[in-house]
Amino acid sequence: MRRPEKELERASRIVTRRGLVMGGLQLGLVGVLGWRMQSMQVGQAEEFRLLAEENRINLRLLPPDRGLIFDRNGVKLAENAQNYRIVIIREDAGDVDETLAALARLIPVDPAAIERAKEEMARRSAFAPVPIMERVPWEHVARVTVNTPSLPGIHAEVGLSRLYPRGQDMAHVVGYVGPVSDFDMTRGYLAEDDDPLLREIPRFQVGKTGVEARLEHTLRGSAGTARIEINAAGRVMRELGRDEGVPGRDLQLTVDSDLQRYLQIRLEGESASCVVMDLEDGDIRAIGSAPSFDPNLFVRGISVADWRMLADDKYRPLASKAVQDAYPPGSTFKMITALAALEAGEIDSEETVYCPGHLDVADLRFHCWRRGGHGNMNLHDSMTQSCDIYYYDIGQRVGIDAIGAMARRLGLGVQHDVPLSAVSDGIAPDREWKRRTRGEDWRIGDTVNASIGQGYVLASPLQLAVMTARIATGLEIKPRLVRSIDGIPQPSGRGESLGLNENHLRRIRDSMFAVSNHSRGTAYGSRIDAPEMRMSGKTGTSQVRRITPEERRAGVVSNEDLPWERRDHALFVGYAPYDNPRYAISVVVQHGGGGSAAAAPIARDILLQALYGGTPPLDAYPSAHRGRIQTQQQEMEQRAAARAASMRDRA
Amino acid sequence: MSYLEYQVKYVPSGLRKVLYLHWPLILLVTAVAAIGVLMLTSVAGGDMSRWAEPQMVRFGLGFTLMIAAAMIPLWFWRNMAGVAYAVALVLLILVEFFGVAGKGAVRWIDIGFMQLQPSELMKIAIVMVLAAYYDWLPLDRTSRPLWLIPPLVLILVPVALVLRQPDLGTALLLLTGGGAMMFLAGVHWAYFATLIGGGVAAVVAVFESRGTPWQLLQDYQYRRIDTFLNPENDPLGAGYHITQAKIALGSGGVTGKGFMQGTQSRLNFLPEKHTDFIFNTLAEEFGFLGGITLLILYGLIIFFCIVTALRQSARFAQLMILGVAMTFFLYFAINMAMVMGLAPVVGVPLPLVSYGGSAMLVLLMAFGLVQSAHVHRPR
């Protein structure tokens, strides 16, 4: 079809015009695209680059190696042992239930552990390894490894876990670690701690009790980081860089683990505690509480049955009685009453008080432990024979405020800075204390009770050991549990002079010497015979019940006839050698009966062990006892050897 | 232009035609395709055999088709316009019955050696058929309502078929491309003003209809619109892809992270990285300079096409070339706007770069037609 030339030209003009309009529009849009590209890639590039890095890089925390704990001789008390654990990776496992069932057919697996693993798997991404079992014995690891083809997604891994080679010997001192709990982080001692390790590492182990908990931040170290490149699914592609963390610092304790073992074995069978302090520098050479428990059980995750057994035991194996229990110190408090009276100038050491067996104070009758009375008593005799009336009298004369002040000066009623759990303050009462805590006025009867360490007075075995150490040296000795941190020695606990009159102290020490060396002394039966090692001390028997007048009339019931919970506490404090004191000791046998019968022999044996640095020669003991002691020593050695062997096996 | 007219004017013949090809255009097309091969190598982590090699094979095939098409006189292609449209329409209908599904849509038919996407074929067929229609239609009838019906039917039938697949992106492309043809042919401005008014009304209707029984779009299409409007609202859900795509693009900065160093695409944060979102990998690894270079190459292709069209005197050639240019422009403009977060994600590939056979072959064929017009233009 021919078209007129004119029409063709017009058509061509229209197309040209419209083509140019279209081209202009296109150019405009290309400009918009270019501008957008520029604004994103030049203007906002930094912003987007940051987002891309955030996408790509994950910081993975590398848990630091926890610091080790040694005793004073370099014996390991807490170490990090390699152990095998079995983990499962969900995405490799396919049918998780089937795989776990196959695993359970191969090796014994706790059904609770399987449930735990399944819960954890549901929370974590499919490629994260979830531990099923820890501390798997080697033969089980071998069985799993050999059967890898039939156990998709299941691997054996090597990890570090805390091991306490000295087991129950050190349970109350070293404590134990466990996975950090919500409680720890919200209300517990880690509430202020914002270390990412606690939140990021599954089942991160933190100290739960004892030194492990109190020195958590020293032992923990700080996390290293690995910069990991991840893809969109969160899978690790490669490690971009690694910053090794700082391992926790190693601790050396002042404790002598052999003495500690002896102490624990010697206390076995009783609910008792004992503290041995070095008078040179305040070092705690041994601090034990019986019965004890195996801290390794807690690291592994204690079974309900084991837990119930420990928690329901009326002897309270979990309690660290040496520091967290406070007992009425009974007669071991008499040194304080006497020193307070001497320092106040209320008495002189030769002044006598007549003991008829009882004392009436403000309508109340207070009795001496010896119903018939002791007759005329001076300081020396009252201490040796533990007459109560003498102290009732001088206590009233000097007044409770002076007694309380002296008690605090000697370390009672104050908290000592040792890194152990639940360290008790005890109570060194005075008027102000009673008003503050009870809202009542102090009564004279309270003073009478307090003067013999009953009533409101409470002291922990550690405080009693400190008191004894201060009496023995006249120095303000402070207990020290940590000898060095990463090789850096910690300040000595040997303090300045207490400023007490040396003559008064000598009187007290002489009396304490007589307690265990004078034939009428209450601890004469537990004396040390070796002339250069002789012991000074003081027995105590503290009542945990009130003896009613009816009971008294019916005749005092002997401890053996009472149920255990109502028997007296047996206490002994002492130091040796008497003329050049090296160690102070305190022993409390809960509901053990009389101090001279139940506590003093234990204290004597442990002191000798400390003095001789091992089993003492038999001639350190009174000749009449040597036969019995020899049998006892042999038995103790056997038990110590058995215990050492059992711990070696387990480790 | 008839055979006789063609004979009387001087045109090169035989192999001499090769000398008269529009070589700058061929070079530009090849350069863009080379960038595509480079990026396909990069997104496969350096593995050429995964996407780059098949893409090169297709480019080779398409290049041959392009040169072959250029050798054939334009009047043949004009006469073939109706046939091409009919074939594309039949194939589009066949997709309805024998289509192969992929990514929630039925867009492909299996023709043995490759999976053909007839909607891509339709993009060029519709340009041809409309150019032929307006070449035939006397100019004074162009704007008459009655004569608007045939082109509208020609456009809307394939659009409806494509929407059924469903493929919103291609439908939009066909609609806009066809509309542009009508605009170029000289249809009166008033129609377009009305249409744009109607379009705005339609958009309102689309939004208003949501959740009612007469809902106009599929739920997934609404979600894409939501995602487009507020990708940050749901960065891990529906907005994830566009957010990650923008991060990839933006983080490239001016010079980029380097070849195969793009973390977003390497670590699979980037979606559809070898097809629709391949531009983001380019922008991430070669930065603003890389991105703007590609944009300039595209712009130059359009520019040369428009210049060629304006030097033509035959109406069919003019309309056809401008139509091809418009279609090509719509491809990359919609794709780029989409991956930069300027437009909703509708699934339009980046022309000559994205992995995909049909679009590559069809676009090269279209450039073959442009070349044919260029070679056989009256001098």
Automatic annotation (TrEMBL), chain A:
Chief localization: membrane
Membrane topology: Single-pass membrane protein
GO cellular component term of the entry, any: plasma membrane
Chain residue ranges for the region called Disordered: 626-651
A biological process term (GO) from this entry: proteolysis
Keyword Transmembrane among UniProt keywords: yes
Alphabetized UniProt keyword annotations: Carboxypeptidase, Cell inner membrane, Cell membrane, Cell shape, Cell wall biogenesis/degradation, Hydrolase, Membrane, Peptidoglycan synthesis, Protease, Transmembrane, Transmembrane helix
Protein name: Penicillin-binding protein 2
Organism: Histidinibacterium lentulum
TrEMBL record, chain B:
Pathway stated in the Swiss-Prot or TrEMBL entry: Cell wall biogenesis; peptidoglycan biosynthesis
The keyword Cell wall biogenesis/degradation is annotated on this UniProt entry: yes
Enzyme class, broadest EC rank: transferase
Record-linked PROSITE patterns: FTSW_RODA_SPOVE (PS00428)
GO MF term set: lipid-linked peptidoglycan transporter activity; peptidoglycan glycosyltransferase activity
Major localisation: membrane
Segments traversing the membrane: 20-44, 56-77, 83-101, 145-163, 170-191, 286-307, 319-346, 352-370
A Pfam family hit: FTSW_RODA_SPOVE
GO BP term (any one): regulation of cell shape
One GO CC term on file: plasma membrane
Catalyzed chemical reaction(s): [GlcNAc-(1->4)-Mur2Ac(oyl-L-Ala-gamma-D-Glu-L-Lys-D-Ala-D-Ala)](n)-di-trans,octa-cis-undecaprenyl diphosphate + beta-D-GlcNAc-(1->4)-Mur2Ac(oyl-L-Ala-gamma-D-Glu-L-Lys-D-Ala-D-Ala)-di-trans,octa-cis-undecaprenyl diphosphate = [GlcNAc-(1->4)-Mur2Ac(oyl-L-Ala-gamma-D-Glu-L-Lys-D-Ala-D-Ala)](n+1)-di-trans,octa-cis-undecaprenyl diphosphate + di-trans,octa-cis-undecaprenyl diphosphate + H(+)
Its biological purpose: Peptidoglycan polymerase that is essential for cell wall elongation.
Homology family: Belongs to the SEDS family. MrdB/RodA subfamily.
Protein name, entry field: Peptidoglycan glycosyltransferase MrdB
Organism for this UniProt entry: Histidinibacterium lentulum
